From TrEMBL:
Region (Disordered): 310-344
Designated name of the protein: 4-hydroxy-3-methylbut-2-enyl diphosphate reductase
Record field: compositional bias (Gly residues): 324-334
Gene: ispH
Lineage of origin: Bacteria, Pseudomonadati, Pseudomonadota, Alphaproteobacteria, Hyphomicrobiales
Record-listed isopentenyl diphosphate binding positions: H48, H81, S228, S272
Source species: Blastochloris tepida
Length: 344
């Protein structure tokens, strides 16, 4: 059993933590608060991370589940997962000033789903019923759409033409979550169609990296909050390998006993976990033990999404202080690379 003075080898997954769409959503609310001042109303939590949401709430963001809670004409921000079309229409009727922080890759799915429906396809939408993203995609399909959440749903599908079935997947599901459903769809519908071009791989890449990590270490800490579906799912996937797994929601939750007997430890985080939380946990580990940190090989993420144009052109972007989120001035950038614009 390692003594407390023995360096602890800490392995970090790659990629780890916040994705481009989540970063953009949180920065959108921060920027809206800076430009327009509080209150800024946000439909549902902008992202599924308690630290980010609490920080934004402290600065004047008001998170609502019902537009009836918002004064007519007030500024409303849509979250990263998007909203159904009827919510957009309701905002128009109420005269709300809308800033859309929907992830551009989710908006791409909206267009792909509509394109399939307009060409006469039944659309099998793999996702969790009731999720904002699923409702948003389904509402934009002017035809036959079937939400598929498990393999058993595939056998119950009633389609107009088995040769014209398309498959769309919710972005917050990874390949591990959907592979059996996709296989069942392909078996029943051999000519199954899928969107062209790039899809969101953030969840899949983090799940795959976490499984790789679990094979290298004696225990895994999944950094994030229980409010995040993707964080909870990452926990389940790692725990299923048999390696001891712990959810770490704050650096303060760790003490020396958490590291007793460990020579190696892995850190993983889902796409809703801010850089600041991961860095705080690493700082805490260094305070508890001498550590050696290694980053496992994995895909580089170079995409960064621009803020909505009305916010980009509203003057100098101020320093984002107080949210604990790695937005402008709040931590390491996502990385250099392609900048994709989404001017909604």
């Amino acid at each position: 059993m390692p003594a407390n003075g023995t360096p602890l080898r800490v392995f970090l997954t790659k990629p780890c933590g916040v994705c481009a769409g989540v970063r953009r959503a949180a920065e959108t609310v921060e920027r809206a608060l800076a430009v327009y001042g509080p209150p800024v109303y946000v439909r549902h939590e902008i992202i599924h991370d308690r630290h980010v949401v609490d920080g934004l709430r402290a600065r004047g963001a008001v998170f609502v589940d019902d537009l009836g809670e918002v004064p007519d004409g007030a500024l409303v921000v849509f979250g990263a997962h998007g909203v159904a079309e009827d919510i957009e229409h309701d905002c128009e009727r109420r005269g709300h000033d809308v800033v859309d922080a929907t992830c551009p890759l989710v908006l791409k799915l909206h267009k792909e789903a509509r394109r399939f429906a307009e060409r006469g396809y039944d659309v099998a939408l793999i996702g969790r019923p009731g999720d904002d993203e699923v409702e948003g995609i389904a509402s934009r399909i002017p035809g036959r759409v079937h939400v598929v959440s498990q393999v058993a749903d595939v056998g119950r599908l009633e389609v107009a033409d088995p040769a014209r079935v398309a498959c769309i997947m919710q972005t917050t599901l990874g390949g591990i979550d959907t592979q059996d459903i996709v296989a069942a769809l392909k078996h029943r519908f051999p000519r199954l169609a899928a969107p062209d071009g790039d899809a969101c791989s953030a969840v899949h890449d983090r799940q795959k990296a976490a499984l790789k990590l679990a094979r290298r270490v004696e225990a895994v800490f999944v950094v994030g909050t229980s409010t995040s579906t993707t964080t909870r799912r990452l926990m389940e996937i790692v725990a299923a390998t048999g390696v001891p797994t712990r959810l770490v929601e704050s650096a303060a939750a760790l003490d020396a006993t958490a590291l007793d007997g460990l020579a190696t430890l892995g850190l993983a985080a889902g796409p809703s976990t801010p850089d600041a939380l991961i860095e705080a946990v690493m700082t805490r580990l260094k305070a508890l033990r001498a550590v050696e940190i290694d980053v496992l090989d994995g895909p580089e993420e170079h995409v960064r999404f621009r803020l909505p144009s009305r916010l980009r052109h509203a003057g100098e972007r101020p320093e984002a202080a107080g949210s604990g989120y790695p937005g402008p001035g709040g931590g390491a950038p996502l990385g250099r690379g392609t900048v994709l614009s989404q001017d909604r």
